[in-house]
């Protein structure tokens, strides 16, 4: 074998190694955005084919990826770090699109992916930190629009925000954060209810905890199981169930500490503010999420459009046939509308539009029933537990159907 041949093989081997590193780094970033694993594998194979590897073999899980460029070729394993902010998720999505459009080379893409997690927040801390409270107040205006309830929601969200920041310095607190946060908010809400300051304690519990609740994890896991990604789906659902049990522990402890009566765990909705509370709540949720997740303010109207579409579809389904149909239509509308907007405005990544609607959809559909079932309070029953499972499955099916319809539309337009 000639030296020229040896040199060519060495160059080809080095190039393949760089491409494998690029693909697996991109895969880790896409998993960190919260995408279902089956979507990550489809996107990754599309990029692999474009780079000249039609038989790329990815095995994607929520915590790690194994990837080979073809059968019998060397494989690389990569662990997945914590979740990305929405602005970082948008950058990962944009890098993938630029690779497919040949707008950047492999080295540039790998460099930008490597710097992704070090990307600074767009807004200063004094603006992004209170945004958590703004989003919680928005959810409170939708679920429990009472004056006292909103005040307690704001105080509770400040407590949860503080605990969340402290959890970054303590591994033990990070592990027990759901229980500690639920206990703290539960004590605040049950204490205010015992003093006669508010009604509808159960609904008031949810808004401060909504961002921490694992509803999105459960729904994504079920959609993965339905799509055939059984290992990823089962592990994600298992993780979500454990998180729910930790929340239940905190709520039970708070209820026991304040000797909360059965009426405190009843489904009572306080409506003191009128019709304008819901649209204002939706706006506050969008602004709060965009500030917290460093999303450009120019994107807020589009985010709001997708959120309103999903919320309207959910509300329509609930009026026609109940919460299950509402969850299905809301999930379908969120997934499909985000893709349509991305097709019309390619600079708006689908994830930035879709995830805020998804986060709004999960608390809206599952909030009260989930917390009721988690607390295993006097109002809990097997039928209520089945209702929660039914709602989660309905949203997951809606997301899956919406994703399939969106991909079909995208393929048809490209053709």
From TrEMBL:
GO terms for molecular function: transmembrane transporter activity. The keyword Nuclease does not apply. The chain crosses the membrane at residues 149-166, 173-197, 209-234, 241-261, 273-292, 299-317, 323-344, 351-372, 384-406. It holds the Pfam family ThrE. InterPro entries: ThrE-like_N, ThrE/Ser_Exporter. Keywords: Membrane, Transmembrane, Transmembrane helix. Residues 23-256 form the Threonine/serine exporter-like N-terminal domain. It comes from the Bacteria. The keyword Ligase does not apply. Belongs to the ThrE exporter (TC 2.A.79) family. This is Threonine/serine exporter-like N-terminal domain-containing protein.
């Amino acid at each position: 074998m000639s030296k020229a041949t040896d040199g060519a093989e060495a160059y080809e081997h080095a190039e393949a190694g760089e491409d494998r590193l690029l693909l697996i780094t991109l895969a880790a970033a896409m998993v960190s955005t919260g995408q279902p694993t089956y979507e990550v594998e489809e996107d990754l194979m599309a990029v692999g084919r474009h780079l000249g590897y039609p038989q790329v073999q990815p095995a994607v899980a929520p915590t790690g990826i194994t990837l080979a460029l073809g059968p019998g070729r060397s494989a690389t394993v990569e662990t997945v770090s914590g979740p990305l902010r929405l602005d970082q998720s948008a950058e990962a999505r944009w890098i993938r699109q630029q690779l497919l459009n040949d707008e950047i080379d492999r080295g540039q893409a790998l460099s930008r992916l490597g710097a992704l997690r070090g990307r600074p927040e767009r807004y200063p801390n004094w603006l992004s930190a209170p945004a958590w409270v703004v989003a919680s107040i928005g959810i409170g205006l939708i679920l429990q629009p009472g004056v006292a309830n909103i005040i307690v929601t704001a105080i509770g969200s400040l407590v949860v925000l503080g605990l969340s920041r402290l959890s970054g310095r303590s591994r033990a607190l990070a592990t027990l954060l759901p229980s500690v946060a639920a206990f703290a908010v539960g004590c605040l809400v049950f204490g205010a209810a015992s003093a006669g300051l508010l009604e509808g304690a159960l609904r008031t519990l949810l808004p401060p905890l909504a961002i921490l609740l694992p509803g999105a994890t459960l729904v994504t896991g079920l959609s993965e199981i339905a799509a055939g990604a059984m290992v990823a789906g089962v592990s994600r659902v298992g993780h979500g169930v454990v998180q729910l049990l930790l929340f239940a522990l905190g709520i039970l402890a708070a209820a026991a500490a304040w000797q909360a009566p059965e009426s405190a765990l009843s489904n009572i909705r306080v409506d003191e503010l009128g019709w304008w509370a819901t649209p204002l709540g939706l706006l506050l949720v969008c602004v709060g999420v965009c500030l917290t997740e460093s999303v450009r303010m120019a994107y807020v109207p589009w985010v709001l459009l997708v959120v309103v579409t999903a919320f309207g579809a959910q509300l329509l389904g609930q009026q026609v046939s109940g919460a299950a149909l509402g969850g299905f239509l809301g999930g379908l509308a969120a997934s499909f509308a985000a893709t349509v907007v991305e097709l019309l405005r390619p600079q708006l990544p689908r994830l930035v539009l879709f995830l805020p609607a998804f986060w709004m959809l999960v608390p809206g559909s599952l909030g009260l029933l989930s917390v009721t079932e988690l607390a295993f309070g006097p109002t809990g029953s097997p039928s209520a537990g089945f209702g929660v499972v039914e709602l989660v499955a309905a949203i997951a099916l809606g997301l899956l159907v919406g994703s399939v319809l969106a991909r079909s539309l995208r393929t048809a337009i490209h053709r």
